[in-house]
Amino acid sequence: MFQRKKLVTIAALSLLTLLSLTARAHHSAVAFDKSESTTIKGTVTKFVWRNPHLSISVDINGEIWKIEGGSTTEMVNAGFTRDSIVVGEELTALVHPLRSGRPGGLLQGMTLADGSTFGMEYPDAPTTVVSERQLPSLTPYVPPPAGDTWQKREARTRPPVLPLPPANDILPMGVLDAANLAKPRPKPAFDLTGTWAFRGERSEQASYGQYEFKPHPEWTEKGQKIYDEYLSYAQRGERFAEPTAFCYPAGMPRLMTRYGSLMILQYPTAIFMLSRLNNEYRVVYLDGRERQPDNLRDPNWNGESLGRWEGDTLVIETEGFTDENHLIQQGVFTGDQLKITERISVINDGNTMKMDFTMTDPEHWVGEWKHTKFRDRMLSGDVKEANCLAEDNLALPGMGN
């Protein structure tokens, strides 16, 4: 339980330090010395397979090196999967080191315990070596050729094939690819395109829980322990762990049951959802694709949602969740065993979305946890930019010092 409690009990100064270090590491290629390469060898202590880039922690004689890799798509293109690296196994990596001299670097290539290699610029790697790109911010200005025009520049930089071809045959056709959109499909029972407000049902709170799910299921021993700990905090008037206060995504199912508008765009191949709270994004695939294999999937807070039409009902099955600070509701954590089935229909002349949830997570509760929630169509309710900022959250009552 220490990790969850730490989210609410750690001092504000430590939080700001942690968040600032994270910000510097994120997309900060300037932190690495691209003119130098270093080979390191050690034991993997942590491996995070997540967009926008993976990270690997390696123990080298008691010193932890943190390595930043590419996006999961880039790594798949190089023949890499989530199963390629195993915690506890040996790894040799070629990295651009940090300019600061601290133990860390940007991944160029690596050799795994079984001898397989991955990455550009690495000896015997299966991919083609390409020249290193200079950061735009550090590139000296050079005037363009005399008489240059945007038409000439566009022609010089135009890819040899347009539209851009898929990176490999592993990835499915994109849901917005013209060829995918053009495939004949049965007409959907309804169109959810629009903006939807969550119906809180405050008068029904004791029976149905507003934005929470009541009644509770039968907890497992682990689930009961977590909920009892939450109650002990709440009854003392103290904040319990709330990952979203530290900018973790709310994820499913809370994205569907949070107050605030939810913008939905429906296409024949997919439904896109954007929540007003932190602009969290969800996509429901309708193009008949297979579920992504576990070793390629990026486990996250919204999971992978595959939808299909059953008469006048949209059925969505979602799995592939992360087990990192994922909250169902106050005192109810969930993890990578969570599976959610939604049965969505519309009533009131298409102005109310009825959402029937069936959730299973044998790690935290027994059997199925079922509930019904509603969203109502709203006008003049555009979803505007909303960001999670640590300094704003730390200013809330009971957060930090």
Account of the protein in words:
The N terminus is likely disordered. By secondary structure, the chain is α+β, with helices and mostly antiparallel strands. The strands form four sheets. The protein has a nine-stranded mixed beta barrel with strand order 7-9-10-11-12-13-16-17-19. Strands 1-2-3-5-4 form a five-stranded mixed β-barrel. The chain has nine helices and 19 strands.
The helix fraction, in percent, is 10-25%
Write down the secondary-structure element order: HHEEEHEEEHHEHEHHEEEEEEEEEEEH
Number of strands: 19
CATH homologous superfamily (4th level) name of the largest domain? Calycin beta-barrel core domain
How many H/I helices? 9
What is the count of distinct domains? 2
Categorize the overall geometry: globular
Per the CATH scheme, the topology name of the largest domain is Lipocalin
Q: Main beta sheet: strand number and arrangement?
A: 9 strands, mixed, barrel
Please state how the strands of the largest beta sheet are arranged side by side: 7-9-10-11-12-13-16-17-19
SS-based structural class? alpha+beta
CATH class of the largest domain: Mainly Beta
CATH architecture grouping of the largest domain: Beta Barrel
Which structural traits does this protein have?
Lipocalin, 9 helices, disordered N terminus, 401 residues, 2 domains, 19 strands, OB fold (Dihydrolipoamide Acetyltransferase, E2P), alpha+beta, nine-stranded mixed beta barrel, five-stranded mixed beta barrel
